[in-house]
Amino acid sequence: MTKSKTVYVCQNCGAESPKWIGRCPSCREWNTYHEEIIAPANQKASSFISGQVRRKPELLDNIKADEKNRTATGISELDRILGGGMVGGSLILIGGEPGVGKSTLALQLALSLKNTTILYVSGEESEEQISLRAKRLKNSNPLCYVLCETELETILAHSEQLKPGLIIIDSIQTISTTMLESSAGTVSQVRESAAQLLKYSKVTGIPVFLIGHITKDGTLAGPKVLEHIVDVVLYFEGDNNYVYRILRSAKNRFGSTSEIGIFEMAEAGLREVNNPSEMFINQHDEALSGISIAATVDGLRPFLIETQALVSSAVYGTPQRSATGFDIRRLNMLLAVLEKRAGFRLGVKDVFLNIAGGIKVSDPAIDLAIVSSVLSSNLDIPVSREVCLAGETGLSGEIRPVSRIEQRIREASKMGFKKIYISKFHKGISLKGVEIEVVHVGKIEHLVRGLFG
Ligand code: TYD
Ligand code: MG
């Protein structure tokens, strides 16, 4: 029996130290070091994978790789961010906060991928729970196997027998390998299990989906330590109080990271949102003040989104400012610009701002719509329902150009808008076959005159 060794591992970033330290020198977090036992490598376990297939150096020119190796998942929003489907032998991590819908997405994937044997491993839910969820999703796949197991070696042994076309692991934090003595969920277990799965998927060519939890404060041994091991990192975001979920790619070895997938959490699982503009614009019978529509772009995807503002006289000495889905500091900046450059006395007003659908927007092009909503509410004059806006506001009140303006204009036109306000500094926009009036504005004053006369 060889002696086991203990080390202290930072649960935030995975840095190791032979002794306990209060503050991690690597990620500068306090109190994140936990003692972990590192057992000497279990020879039998480690040879399980690498012992069977020994790889030889291969001439690059002789290696055959083609795009046919991609398999469509049956969920088009997922295919879109994966770059057209799953690549054989890839390790894909889906991270997200608890309750956002990771397990639902994973099971939906298992059920929609037909004619493929699927091994769905759950360390969190029982077979009955998974079966109930599948019933709720109203879909079935006769080749989907469920395994409630947490030991990696057992999972791989089952996979060797079953020879599945896809493995899903929910979640990586519950899986542990016998090679280490530390408990499941610790950084070393998460890292080692993921490394073993990577090796397994590369050798066998089976794509593996890993689910990983992240907590708001990031204290759990999280997907952060896995990001460099896996091939693709997807983050599932969304506010649990709203139905919209956005799947974002943070890393993709086989495609671009600028695509996003949009879903809606419905009674029977996640529904793909193919036309997000329709979802994020509320239908009103009459034009209301304080509402304007922004033509934004997230990743590569243009969509229109409604911004709402309420400006009222401050009841208390200090005016209140609140923003949902938008950076409050940027709102304060925009209000200061309106006060200083356009002469609106907003310093004595309460301002509340809301982006429709619980979506967080960081695209600077939304500035113009926010300014319009605030002014519309302040003046109590509605902005026409046929108008949308795209532009960034600078500190001196100038309207700056934004990226992908042609895409934004096309989307606005497609959604039936008659007029779009953009920066006057956009040059050479080619808009063949697009029927929309493009109004170029250089300063906030021009915008105010154009919108409110
Ligand atoms: P879940 O996939 O369990 O989240 P995670 O694995 O990320 O922790 O699902 C989260 C929520 O989704 C849950 O609170 C209930 C809701 N939900 C629906 O609204 N409709 C459905 O069809 C399903 C399966 C779940
Ligand atoms: Mg889950």
Model description:
- This protein has helices at residues 43-50, 76-82, 102-112, 127-137, 152-162, 187-204, 276-279, 328-342, 367-379, 405-414, 444-452; strands at residues 5-10, 16-17, 33-38, 70-71, 86-87, 91-96, 118-122, 144-148, 166-170, 208-213, 232-237, 244-252, 260-266, 269-272, 291-298, 301-313, 321-324, 349-355, 387-389, 392-393, 399-400, 419-423, 437-441.
- It is an alpha/beta fold.
- The chain has three domains: 1-41; 72-274, Rossmann fold; 279-452, Ribosomal Protein S5, domain 2, CATH 3.30.230.
- Helix 3 crosses helix 4 (127-137) and helix 8 packs across helix 9 (367-379).
- The longest helix is centred in the middle third of the chain and has 18 residues, at 187-204.
- The model is unreliable at 43-48 (pLDDT under 50).
- Magnesium ion binds next to helix 3.
